[in-house]
């Protein structure tokens, strides 16, 4: 015998879930700031106070860069969703920032796929998850292309000794591994939520090319903004570094951080460790680098997720439409 919960009870549990997501996100932020093994929060605050680096002018400019970072991301989402459903910029902002808050504490922000999909009725959700995959692949392609260029220049400029034989072996193993996975997926008719690998491939290959190109351009603009923001923070801390040297290290850092398997909870620590290693070649002290990494995280993840918590708390399940 099927038993249906009363409407008010369902509403109560729905509100409880939304509150739990927001509380979990805020608790994660608190833990990350106060329990960071690499940079104690008290040391971080003391470092900022002693440097007295943040004038009103600098703060405003840095916040504008963070705004542009998410402006391009929201615009990209609106553009990519357009082929299946027309949404406003406000809708795209709600979905992007709300899903950031809901996925902040999930491994590799995997929760973003489900969080964005739930803004749509069931007939859209599989395609929305695939569009989110396309969005992430576009951003990743920028990270990889610029990262390879930056890392090549970094290795060349600083004469870093790399065992080419070991690198070649790792490359061969990676290619074989990817080939075997791809073959296994096709052979076993791999599915995601009932969608086969072939359908996923067809969806991506048949996706409007003009939307892909615009999405790629917006990904590039977003990358340019947050990488420049990283460089500008060196200027704020009165650190002498040329733009070219900074960008080779920054692009290398983002590449290495993106290819190292990690849980998003440790993403800040991984970026910090890689950045400390890379910028040591440029003679920049560890405390400055770790402080910049923390500020970047607060500006581009903490602030948007705080704003996104408003959308989570006001979220309503979509009504069926045609």
Explain the overall architecture.
By secondary structure, this protein is an all-alpha fold. The chain has one domain (38-313). The protein is 76% helix and 1% strand. The protein has 12 helices and 2 strands. The protein has helices at residues 7-34, 41-51, 56-81, 89-103, 111-117, 122-158, 164-187, 197-205, 209-236, 243-259, 267-280, 286-313, and strands at 191-192, 195-196. A two-stranded antiparallel ribbon has the order 1-2. Helix 6 packs across helix 9 and helix 10 packs antiparallel against helix 11 (267-280). It is globular and about 65 Å long.
Walk across the major sheet and give the strand order. 1-2
Q: Per DSSP, what share of the residues sits in E-state strands of 2 or more residues?
A: under 5%
- Average residue pLDDT: 82
Helical content stands at over 70%
- State the low-pLDDT regions, or none: 262-266
Rg calculated over all Cα atoms: 22 Å
Q: How many domain units?
A: 1
> What's the β-strand tally?
2
Task: Summarize the topology.
Layout: H1 7-34, H2 41-51, H3 56-81, H4 89-103, H5 111-117, H6 122-158, H7 164-187, E1 191-192, E2 195-196, H8 197-205, H9 209-236, H10 243-259, H11 267-280, H12 286-313
Antiparallel strand pairs: 1-2
Helix pairs in contact: 1-12, 3-4, 3-6, 3-9, 4-5, 4-12, 5-6, 6-9, 6-10, 9-10, 9-12, 10-11, 11-12
């Amino acid at each position: 015998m099927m038993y249906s919960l009363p409407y008010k009870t369902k509403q109560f549990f729905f509100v409880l879930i939304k509150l739990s997501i927001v509380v979990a996100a805020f608790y994660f932020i608190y833990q990350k700031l106060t329990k960071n093994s690499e940079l104690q929060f008290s040391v971080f605050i003391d470092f900022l106070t002693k440097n007295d680096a943040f004038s009103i002018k600098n703060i405003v400019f840095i916040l504008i860069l963070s705004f542009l970072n998410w402006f391009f991301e929201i615009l990209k989402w609106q553009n990519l969703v357009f082929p299946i459903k027309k949404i406003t910029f406000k809708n795209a902002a709600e979905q992007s920032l709300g899903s950031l808050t809901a996925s902040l504490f999930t491994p590799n922000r995997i929760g973003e796929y489900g969080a964005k999909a739930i803004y749509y009725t069931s007939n859209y959700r599989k395609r929305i998850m695939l569009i989110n995959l396309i969005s992430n692949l576009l951003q990743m392609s920028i990270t990889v292309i610029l990262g390879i260029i930056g890392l090549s220049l970094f290795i060349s400029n600083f004469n870093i000794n790399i065992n080419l034989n070991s690198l070649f072996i790792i490359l061969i193993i990676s290619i074989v591994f990817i080939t075997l996975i791809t073959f296994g997926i096709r052979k076993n008719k791999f599915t995601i939520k009932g969608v086969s690998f072939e359908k996923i491939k067809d969806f991506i290959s048949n996706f409007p090319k003009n939307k892909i190109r615009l999405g790629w351009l917006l990904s590039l603009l977003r990358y340019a903004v947050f990488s420049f923001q990283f460089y500008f923070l060196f200027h704020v801390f009165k650190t002498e570094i040329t733009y070219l040297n900074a960008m080779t290290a920054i692009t290398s850092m983002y590449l290495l951080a993106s290819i190292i398997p990690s849980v998003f909870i440790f993403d800040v620590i991984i970026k910090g460790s890689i950045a400390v290693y890379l910028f040591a070649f440029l003679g920049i002290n560890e405390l400055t680098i770790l402080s910049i990494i923390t500020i970047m995280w607060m500006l581009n993840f903490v602030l948007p997720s705080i704003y996104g918590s408003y959308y989570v708390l006001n979220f309503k399940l979509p009504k069926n439409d045609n």
